[in-house]
Design brief:
Number of helices of chain A: 17
CATH architecture of the largest domain in chain B: Orthogonal Bundle
Shape of chain A: elongated
Largest interface: A-B, 91 and 88 residues
Strand content of chain B: under 5%
Number of domains of chain B: 2
Order of helices and strands of chain A: HHHHHHHHHHHHHHHHH
CATH superfamily of the largest domain in chain B: MetI-like
Oligomer: heterodimer
Shape of chain B: flat
Structural class of chain B: mainly alpha
Distance between the termini of chain A: 43 Å
Order of helices and strands of chain B: HHHHHHHHHHHHHHH
Radius of gyration of chain B: 26 Å
CATH class of the largest domain in chain B: Mainly Alpha
Structural class of chain A: mainly alpha
Largest sheet of chain A: none
Strand content of chain A: under 5%
Largest sheet of chain B: none
CATH class of the largest domain in chain A: Mainly Alpha
Radius of gyration of chain A: 34 Å
Distance between the termini of chain B: 52 Å
Number of domains of chain A: 2
Number of strands of chain A: 0
Number of helices of chain B: 15
Helix content of chain B: over 70%
CATH topology of the largest domain in chain B: MetI-like fold
Chain lengths: 442, 334
């Protein structure tokens, strides 16, 4: 404070402002991260949740119709439709809530009846054994009347449930009719997507999209399908490329770390840099020209070749760095015991750095699993499960891309859910890798 | 035992090393190292050889002509080149300053306990597959962007034709509400290259020697003046290198650009809100079903140009980052 410069305040404010800006920038970078992961988990996850209440989709469909009609800019035309839809919606809501209540009662009544009958038996036994008193008889009569009421209710519910069901069918077909007469509302928009591919998603492959479903009820599990073919394809293709890339990457890494640095090793390092910086589409073009154009067929193997080129630099650099972390004393000890260099490298140095090398392989796996552009040029995509690497195949990122571009909202929902599978795979592997390396470098 | 005492001739040493297995192992690892070089050579050779037909036909002049129409044998790649440069430029303009600020925060200002988790989160952004960026852009970001950014700006600017304003004018070929365009591609690419720039900035700022900071603080500088004059200016070559690496990533990015850029392949529109096409997206969308060998060859030529540009950018950037990060204790994972 002794030597304050004349514009001290201005400098101080500017300092605080810029420091604040760095915080703002960091937060700004985290916003898209959380938005993307959040959307993928919520929208993708909703496709995996099984709604046990099959009526939920009717409600969602009708609700969508009503909001759509009230949002539109054509009130003159839509007003009557809107009123009708509103009415239908409220009747459907009462219908559904009554149905649900009745269903709960149907489940609960047998238990209550059993309890009542048990206590009735109890009272009757006591009357038999110890003689009737007025109180006991009153209790008996009360219990009997309660049982009668319950049985009555049961009968009513049994009679009314079918009625409610038929009323519901009428209402739903009314709403379908409404939706059809509402200009420009396709039933596909209303079709309660994202509700039913809960389990078949992982076991079924693609189904042709219902471009224009004829009624809300008709969209069912069988028409939605899943991405099992994509999961199989991704693991096969990336697994095969790992088989190609691992020996190249690890042995090149051994060469870079275990042998003295020469011009050749500088050149190899430069090449790994070039490979890791080369746009993945270029690698895809190379695999397309070398494999697809030669064999005249799109195949999973061509995809594996492309992905393995993308994996090699990651594996090489991680292996090199991890081997360099192994202390020289370990090597000297093995030399002292008379081991040749290749033997100690394979049995001492590489095992010592194993967790790091595995991490590198996992990171390469994650990077390759998310790549789409090279696959677009090499594996083409397919709608069935294929175990043959020599045929066109499907893969998760490719499915995500194709279903995103598809106009059908059902397919879009599948895109979100396959994106969820892909993101979980990539994030898990990354977090795992980070955890392993943190333990090592400490 | 006696043979050990005798001096070995060169040939004998060689034989012994062969018997030990050391030499074969060395050559084996060297072979795989050479294979890595071979991969680069193969990529270069394939794109050079594959584009021979197109190079003989047009030379490189077609890169600056408009009118892409493979059906009529009309190839002009200027829309693709322009789209690539414009979207990457926007991305760099947004992500460059942000990335440097993040790097400053992570290396200079952040509490130590937050440093690891924050760096990890920022780098996680780089791990998300690009197709998911594209999908998120289509379903989530474009509706938001159209409603709150594109429509207000185009309403404000109208149909201006003077240069800087025309970039923000209403597009002619597609309604602004379609959302897909060069601007949105630039913004999505900015999110994608942000972690690259931030991580490299952080790495080159961390290795700036402490006497730089101490000297400026001793003459009474504020924290920001210390950072700006002492740290950033010292590491500026490395920061520029990081930005170039980010730019390289943006230029080569395929899927996110393909999904959100629109695909207007014939002409170039002056407005940035109008759809366009990027070079990588053009190759990815047309090569699998190319009509003729000339068509395929032209697409490979575009890939060659892209490869050349990213190669040069990356070589220059790595040189810069490497040059800077040789500071004391520098261990840069660039």
């Amino acid at each position: 404070m002794i030597n304050q410069s004349p514009n001290y305040l201005r400098r101080r404010v500017f300092d605080l402002f810029m420091r604040g800006m760095t915080i703002v920038a960091t937060l700004l970078a985290l916003v898209p991260l959380f938005l993307i992961i959040g959307y993928v988990f919520i929208r993708g996850g909703s496709g995996l949740i099984y709604f046990p209440d099959e009526y939920a989709r009717y409600e969602i469909g009708v609700e969508k119709l009503v909001t759509m009609l009230s949002d539109r800019q054509d009130p003159q035309y839509d007003r009557d439709l809107f009123t009708q839809a509103r009415n239908d919606q409220s009747s459907l809501e009462t219908n559904l809530s009554t149905t649900r209540r009745y269903q709960e009662r149907t489940k609960a009544i047998p238990g209550e009846l059993k309890d009542l009958r048990a206590s009735l038996n109890d009272v009757s036994e006591r009357i038999e054994n110890r003689g009737a008193t007025p109180e006991r008889e009153a209790e008996q009569a009360q219990l009997a009347s309660q049982i009668a009421t319950l049985e009555n209710e049961q009968a009513t519910i049994k009679a009314e449930l079918p009625q409610l069901a038929s009323e519901r069918t009428t209402l739903i077909s009314d709403i379908d009719e409404l939706a059809r007469s509402a200009r420009g509302v396709s039933l596909d928009d209303l079709g309660s997507v994202g509700l039913r591919h809960y389990f078949p998603f992982f076991t079924e492959s693609a189904k042709p999209a219902p471009v224009m479903a004829t009624s809300i009820q008709q969209i069912s599990i069988t028409q939605v399908g899943g991405v099992f073919h994509g999961i199989v394809g991704t693991f096969l293709i990336v697994g095969a490329s790992l088989l190609i890339a691992l020996p190249i990457g690890i042995l090149a890494g051994v060469f870079l770390s275990e042998y003295p640095s020469t011009q050749l090793s500088t050149f190899i390092r430069f090449s790994t840099d070039v490979l890791s910086a080369a746009p993945s589409i270029i690698v895809g073009v190379t695999a397309y020209v070398l494999v697809v154009q030669r064999t005249k067929e799109f195949s999973g193997l061509a995809g594996s070749v492309a992905l393995s080129v993308l994996m090699v630099p990651v594996i090489t650099r991680t292996t090199e760095e991890m081997l360099k972390l192994v202390p020289t004393t370990v090597r000297e000890a093995a030399f002292g015991l008379g081991s040749p260099k290749w033997w100690l490298t394979l049995t001492v140095v590489i095992p010592a750095a194993m967790s790091g090398i595995v991490t590198g392989a996992l990171l390469a796996f994650a990077r390759a699993a998310g790549e789409t552009a090279p696959l677009l040029l090499t594996i083409l995509g397919k709608n069935q499960v294929t175990w043959n690497l020599l045929e066109p195949m499907a893969a998760l990122p490719l499915i995500t891309y194709k279903y995103t571009e598809n106009p059908s909202p059902i397919q879009n929902d599948l895109a979100w859910t396959s994106a969820l599978v892909l993101t979980m795979l990539v994030l898990l592997v990354n977090i795992m890798a980070r955890w392993v390396t943190r333990k090592r470098t400490r | 035992m006696a043979s050990q005492a005798e001096p070995l001739s060169g040939l004998k040493t060689f034989q012994r090393r062969i018997e030990h297995g050391d030499l074969p192992f060395r050559y084996l690892t060297m072979f795989f190292g050479l294979l890595v070089i071979l991969l680069v050579v193969a990529i270069g050779w394939v794109v050079w050889d594959g584009s021979a037909e197109a190079r003989a036909e047009f030379g490189f002049g077609f890169l600056f002509q408009e009118g892409w129409n493979p059906v009529n044998n009309n190839y002009g790649a200027w829309p693709a080149i322009y789209g690539t440069l414009a979207s990457s430029g926007i991305a760099l303009l947004i992500a460059g300053p942000l990335g440097v600020l993040i790097g400053v925060f992570l290396s200079e200002l952040c509490p130590f306990s937050l440093r690891m988790p924050l760096s990890f989160l920022v780098e996680l952004l780089a791990a998300i597959p690009s197709v998911i960026y594209g999908m998120w852009g289509i379903f989530v970001f474009i509706p938001f962007f159209v409603k709150y950014i594109a429509i207000p700006i185009t309403d404000l600017v109208g149909n201006a034709t003077t240069f800087p304003l025309s970039l923000l004018s209403a597009p002619q070929t597609a309604p602004v509400t379609s959302g897909r365009g060069i601007m949105i591609a630039g913004i999505i690419l900015a999110i994608m290259i942000l972690p690259t720039i931030a991580a490299i900035s952080r790495d080159v700022l961390v290795v700036v020697p402490n006497h730089q900071r101490e000297a400026l603080l001793a003459v009474g500088a504020t924290r920001w003046e210390m950072i700006w004059k002492g740290v950033i200016s010292y590491a500026r070559a490395g920061i520029v290198g990081g930005m170039m690496l980010g730019l390289g990533r943006a230029l080569g990015e395929t899927m996110a650009a393909l999904m959100v850029i629109g695909s207007l392949k014939k002409t170039v529109e002056s407005s940035l809100f109008a759809p366009g096409i990027s070079a990588a997206a053009l190759v990815a969308s047309e090569l699998p079903n190319a009509d003729s060998s000339l068509h395929a060859s032209t697409l490979i030529l575009i890939a060659l140009v892209l490869f050349g540009i990213t190669l040069l950018l990356n070589a220059a950037a790595r040189l810069l980052v490497w040059h800077v990060s040789r500071g004391p204790g520098g261990n840069v994972r660039a």
